[in-house]
Amino acid sequence: MANGIPTGATPARAVWWRDPRWRSLIYQAIALAAVVAVGWYLVDNTLSNMERRGITSGFDFLSNTAGFDIIQALVPYSATSTYGSVFLVGLINTLLIAAVGVVFATMLGFIIGVARLSSNWLISTLATIYIETFRNIPLLLQILFWYHAVLKPLPGPRESINFLDVIFVNNRGLYLPLPGFNQAFLPVFVVLVAGIVGTIMLRRWSRKRQAATGQLFPVVRWGLFAILGLPALVFVLMSFISGPPMEFGIAKLTGFNFEGGMVVIPEFVALLVALSVYTAAFIAEAVRSGIQAVSHGQTEAAYALGVRPAPTMKLIIIPQAMRVIIPQLTNQYLNLTKNSSLAVFIAYPDLVAVFMGTSLNQTGQAVEIVAMTMAIYLTISLVTSAVMNWYNARISLVER
Amino acid sequence: MSTEVSETPRESIASTASTNVAVQMIGVHKWYGQFHVLKDINLSVHRGERIVICGPSGSGKSTLIRCINRLEEHQQGQIIVEGNELTNDVKKIDEIRREVGMVFQHFNLFPHLTVLENLTLAPLWVRKVPKAEAEATAMKYLERVKIPEQALKFPGQLSGGQQQRVAIARSLCMNPRIMLFDEPTSALDPEMINEVLDVMVSLAEEGMTMMCVTHEMGFARTVADRVIFMDGGEIIEQNEPEPFFSNPQHERTKEFLGQILHH
Amino acid sequence: MSDIQAEVGAYDPGTHPDLPPPPATAGILGWIKHNLVPSFEHAGITAAIAIAITAVLVFAADMAPLVGLTVAVFGLAIVNAIIKAIAPDRAIMGQTLLTLFAMIVFYFLLAGVIGFTIIDAVWDAKDKVGCATSPDGACWGFIGARFEQFMYGFFPEPERWRVDLWSIILTVGIAAIIFTDGPRRQPTALVLFGATVVLYVWQLGLGNPDVRAVLWMAAPAALGVLLLLPSEQMRKAIGLLMLLAYPLASFWLLSGSFGFIVPFILPVAGLIIASLGGDRARSVGTLMMGLFFLIIALSLVGAIFGLLGNWGVPLVDSIADGFDAVLGIYWGDWGLDGLSFTYVETDKWGGLMLTLVVAITGIAASLPLGVLLALGRRSNMPVVKTMCVMFIEFWRGVPLITVLFMASVMFPLFLPEGVTFNQLLRALIGVALFSAAYMAEVVRGGLQALPKGQFEAADALGLNYFKSMRLIVLPQALKIVIPGIVNTFIGLFKDTTLVAIIGLIDFLAQVDTGMRDSSWLAPNVPYTGYLFVAAVFWIFCYGMSRYSRGVERRLETGHKR
Ligand SMILES: Nc1ncnc2c1ncn2[C@@H]1O[C@H](COP(=O)(O)OP(=O)(O)OP(=O)(O)O)[C@@H](O)[C@H]1O
Ligand SMILES: [Mg+2]
Fold first, then answer.
1. ipTM
2. Are C235 and C326 in contact (CB under 8 A)?
3. What gap in Å lies between CA A328 and CA A281, rounded to an integer?
């Protein structure tokens, strides 16, 4: 600018070390360098340590024979299977306990959460006692309690607790009849499927009819009949025509133990009960806070319009409460899944117990095994929260 | 006030033939715990009558009109709405609520439903009207409150005045015989108050029975057949607007009017 | 008009007195009607039917009365449900049946708890034989016999007064912080002094009190003194001491080594002086801290020279030696080893004491780390932000058990040859990193809840980033999330039980191993043991959650005002 007149195109610039953009670049470079340096240092140490201990890195060990038994495997597994199979069996067991736990915890949690809001003082007090008791006691303690204090002291197979000669409970597990289906079940199955399809169609039809004539149809009642009642009727009918459509493999005491039937190992039961009871307390709180988050004005507005309490619940309260409940619920499902790793304390063969525990001990492949196990949990968490974010964005109330 | 009321011939309020009574309260008392909120309320409202209730904060105005559709339960006395006495009988309560519309201070629209769905919800689930018909009615009332173009928006996207007009339309969709208003304009900015009052005035012109808690004295003067002053849970004074404002009888009424009219 | 006003009440307008509500709607009856049964008629009918059925079941079917009542209630519930399906208005039994059901459950609960813990309990059993005399009740003798071990693990008997002192400081410090702004401080202090006197007289009556008894008896008096001191300033001082000096004191008391903490006295004292005193003190304190950071920097440089020397760079070796010689004095024990107690290895730590150590370290470390991470996550530097997000999401995505496994098997691999880490330290690092991630999310919630105006106002005042965070943003954000922070603490406290997986014997593990001891193998011992641990954890956790709810309520009213 020879003539000394500022052109006004660019504002005067600060000295570079006072320029926030430069500063931020420099800070970031330093942070990155520090992290890379620490990371490099750790990796370097790890590599040399592994070399010194004669551990070969890599995932080859997955095809080696594991050589130990697992007390619960849903896919074929024996002591001669590989570590890869161990990983799979553990993963399936983790998913199994998580899935079953989620179902039970949800049912229990919703019941308790609704009870917590009951206008009946005794009921809501009971619910409060439940919530405050179970969520303030460590989960591990509850698992150990169910396993060591309740299930393990049960009598041995010979003195099993016997329910009508079909269900047996002893310290080796819970023996349930194993359902087996034969050809006579086919009609029952067909009716069941027809019932489900029919109910869906019924629902559509009733919606259409409501739109056209305003008449309401008790879909739930008839749907329940079609899905539960009709198949049951056919079941009874088929029993008369061609013998029972289902045969139950019932456990029998042979020698010192039971054979046949379906066994649920006590480790599974203890873990399931503890996880469900513990998580239900948190779910109940989520349900309560969700329902309470809907302002009382909403209920009053619906009542003032003449809407009865039941439809008010269904049309006004629940849809709004769900927006609060579902994110918390998902969080609790994730917690339950992660908490199922406490299985290792009572030797329920979940992913952590059989893979991070036994397999790591035997192979010494610490890095690979820790990484694989953590990757599984991370994947579950990240996928779930991605889905949650999408869901939250979708359902969030439209605001100005 | 921008509201102008053409002098439609008012029904004679002198006739008290019981068939003509919309709401009757006889010796009504209500307590919140130990707190005596409504004390010996005696009041009858005729069909087509427009009543404005005013009084200081906490005097029991909201409680009074909320007793009429049983959002609050009274403990002594009788409340008879359109010939039905309010008791614990759920059926009766339902019947009465169908006939009585209510507009709240904070609108209480259902935020998860569109404006149209807000309006058709009760007709569909309570009156069991076909959907097309319910929507036609809804649109008709939206036009009456002058916001048909907002039908597919959500309440959160509307201004306060628009929301309150939707709330009024929502009540009207049930075809009520009585409308209750609990301070419908006091949560609104000044420029939105008139758009809501206009709707209320036009409702009054059509002969709707209205009970309205409000501090809009201009509205009371032009529209009301009777103004009721409450204090401490009692009806202190009631009169036609002209004498009520120009010549209040009771000390407390004077005091209250003094505060509300000259500040 | 006249006919409207003809309906005149008994009083002139404006003179109606406040009357009490009619009896059936207020008082106990009103409460019952409002909270238990909507209608006395319905309740009467339902109860009569239920009792009649119960009577039939008891006399005809020979059932126990309670079992009979339960059966009756469930039977009637089914009947009620059927009625409801057919004629909803006729199903009048629901609420009453619910009340009856709840009463039965309450009865079983109370009878079970009181029966087990008191009526059927054995109080003075010496071993499993004693316990087995009443297998349906608790065997409190087991807890009594093992109590010290449950509290202190294998901490040597003569040194346990150190743990006592440590926990007394902790309790008194926290209690002082919580109660110093509460009402009725003077009377509370008086009660506490009174308690000390009573305890003292009682102990003297028993004989010569030992040092531990004296310590415990002095605790209430100490709290009383703190409560009497002027509150605002005092609270800040106590808070600072607990936050900064207490960790050092803990290390000294618990491990016994004074030498280790000597070098850290300088910065901690500096920080305390700088935060408490006036302008002069602030510069002195800052100087002390600066000196410490200088020494750290020099030590790092020395270490780098040492590394370079190891790689064969000439000459640096001797420079490193020089550094070592100078700084060695600072990092040494300063000849203050006389102040050390008998050294107690961490593998002797156990029981409730270890649980508290893990929990408190986790809490103390996770808060500052969490704040840093939260700030990083909200920063507008993409690299920093990405690193913080990855760090947080990683730790939040994996179970604590896997973290502890990792700490146990991977940390040794991370370190250079020869450097070892004891098991406790590994667990502490794992727990701290893990809870820092959770804390970060809580703090982030607080930062997000702050109105944007606060940030802008801070900028407008010309404060730089660190000052605006420290003076304006963080104090408010942290205050909003106190309940969240306490909830994270509760979670962390319960999670400390997991450290048993890497061989640490915490409170739960100590009791759990205790009841496997062959001399206590009685059926009621596991129940007793777990009940005891559960009760202790419950008191801690419930106490914290009540506190957090109290704060929450106070904050809510604060916002409304
Ligand atoms: N649910 C309740 N429980 C206890 N007391 C209540 C309840 N609702 C209202 N009250 C009390 O009853 C009295 C009357 O309340 P109400 O809402 O009817 O007053 P209002 O005349 O409408 O006042 P405002 O003009 O402020 O709306 C007040 O003193 C109020 O504190
Ligand atoms: Mg009001």
1. 0.89
2. no
3. 12
What's the A298 CA to ligand 2 centre distance in angstroms? 17
CA C308 to chain centre: 47
Tokens describing residue A173: 């597990």
For residue B225, report the phi and psi dihedrals to the nearest 5 degrees.
Answer: -90, -25
CA B186 – CA B164 distance, rounded (Å): 11
Closest partner CB to B250 (pick from C14, C19, C26): C14
**CB distance B75–C25 less than 8 Å?**
yes
Please tell me whether residue B211 adopts helix, strand or coil conformation.
Answer: strand
- CA–CA separation, A41 vs A47, rounded Å? 10
B67: number of Cβ within 10 Å = 24
> In chain C, what residues touch B232 (CB-CB under 8 Å)?
14, 16
Q: How far apart are CA B49 and CA B226, in angstroms?
A: 8
B41, B61, B105, best to mutate for ligand 1 pocket (most atoms within 8 Å of CB)? B61
Question: Residue B93 corresponds to which tokens in the numbers above?
Answer: 């309560």
User: Is the CB of residue C150 less than 8 Å from the CB of residue C511?
Assistant: yes
The ligand 1 atom nearest the CA atom of B59: 21
End-to-end Cα spacing for chain C: 46
What's the average pLDDT block by block, 10 residues per block, for chain A (400 residues)?
51 69 85 87 84 81 86 86 92 95 95 92 94 95 93 82 80 82 82 90 88 80 83 84 76 74 88 96 94 92 93 92 89 94 93 92 88 94 88 69
Closest Cβ opposite residue C89 in set B43, B90, B250: B90
Whether chain C has a CB inside 8 Å of the CB on A270: the answer is no
Q: Name the closest-CA residue to atom 10, ligand 1.
A: B32
Could you identify the residue written with the tokens 């290390």?
C251
Tell me, yes or no, if A319 comes closer than 8 A to chain B by beta carbon: yes
Name the percent of chain C lying above pLDDT 70. Answer: 95
Determine the 3-state secondary structure of B3 from DSSP: coil
Whole-number Å distance between alpha carbons of A23 and C466:
14
Ligand nearest to the CA of B63: 1
Residue C345 CB coordination number (10 Å): 13
Give the integer Cα–Cα distance in Å for A400 and A181.
Answer: 58
Q: Which residues of A16-48 are buried (b: 16+ CB within 10 A; e: fewer)?
A: eeeeeeeebeeebeebeeeeeeeeeeeeebbee
Tell me which DSSP letter residue B105 carries: T
Question: Do B166 and B115 contact (CB within 8 A), yes or no?
Answer: yes
Residues of A in contact with B152 (CB under 8 A): none
| DSSP-assigned states of every residue in C116-155 | IIIIT-BSS--SHHHHHTSTTS-BHHHHHHHHHHHHHBT-
Give the number of other CB atoms < 10 A from CB of residue B262.
Answer: 6
The set of protein residues with a Cβ atom below 6 angstroms from ligand 1 is B 32, 35, 37, 55, 57-63
- B137-194 pLDDT per residue, tens: 999 999 999 999 999 999 989 999 999 999 999 999 999 999 999 999 988 888 889 9
Q: Name which of B121, B162, B182, B183 to mutate to probe chain A: the one with the most chain A Cβ atoms within 10 A of its Cβ.
A: B121
Sheet containing A167-170: which strands, arranged edge to edge? Answer: A161-163, A167-170, A173-176, A262-264
- Cα B5 to averaged position of ligand 1 atoms, centre (Å): 32
Q: Which of C396, C401, C526 sits opposite A344 (nearest CB)?
A: C401
Name the pTM for this structure.
0.88
